[in-house]
Amino acid sequence: xxxxxxxxxxxxxxxxxxxxxxxxxxxxxxxxxxxxxxxxxxxxxxxxxxxxxxxxxxxxxxxxxxxxxxxxxxxxxxxxxxxxxxxxxxxxxxxxxxxxxxxxxxxxxxxxxxxxxxxxxxxxxxxxxxxxxxxxxxxxxxxxxxxxxxxxxxxxxxxxxxxxxxxxxxxxxxxxxxxxxxxxxxxxxxxxxxxxxxxxxxxxxxxxxxxxxxxxxxxxxxxxxxxxxxxxxxxxxxxxxxxxxxxxxxxxxxxxxxxxxxxxxxxxxxxxxxxxxxxxxxxxxxxxxx
DNA sequence: GTGACACCTGGTAG
DNA sequence: ACTACCAGGTGTC
Length: 290
What we know:
Elements: E1 2-4, H1 13-18, E2 25-28, E3 31-36, E4 39-46, E5 49-53, H2 57-63, H3 70-77, H4 81-89, H5 100-109, H6 115-129, E6 132-135, E7 138-141, H7 146-151, H8 154-159, H9 165-178, H10 183-188, H11 191-199, H12 206-216, H13 227-236, H14 243-251, H15 257-271, H16 275-288
Antiparallel strand pairs: 1-5, 2-3, 3-4, 4-5, 6-7
The chain binds a DNA duplex through α6, α9, α12, α13 and α15.
């Protein structure tokens, strides 16, 4: 099946897949293969045509955020030289609509890891605890639900190379299952409220909470601050902060909560209601331009 | 409310 | 070969 993307709907599958939001996609030849919720499917883009198999168009449109009015978003966040460059370079990058549960576990696992290591951990978890799916003769796996991960022993989780994150994943899974936690409820809650609820999960701090809100709960005003965003701000937005503050966060290994809040609220105020989109462009720019 | 430190593990620069 | 450091930070004194 194919859909044609109009000129008002810029989209780059390649950039979107390579900017490090989601971790369980792989490219083979021209096609991207992935599993979303219970569904394995593949897709490829040629020019303004998006082709896919084994999944319907509405699902694709939803997952890849094709309903987001990107030209409008650009007009709102394109307010300085830095963002202008990033948008020019990565036009068509979109925020995915990931599954909140998978997203939460993914970013709990992401602390102190690089992207390839994160992919490896999530692959291990899926292979060991997920359900098999046969697609085109290849084996794929769903991401294990809360019940499956709650039942897993710490030893088993550590064998997936989770290290100290095993305990966080296990306890978060147990909490989600015991409370029958409804992620969809957070979609309707305001940003601050939804964030506060996520912060209650073990292994979830401000950065992880912001990632989950942005990448899976539709909070496009969330502005996750990681090492790359910190570097980007130090490099391009230092003039918005006192010198003393910049020097301090430049020399530290990690941010304190209050330093995080300062950078986070700067991003949200500076870029406005689509700050999350600005964050992704800045993040990808900083990672690829050094 | 802040600040220092430990933390699994795999890769890579010195 | 061996050490040091870093990786999409968080929890705990």
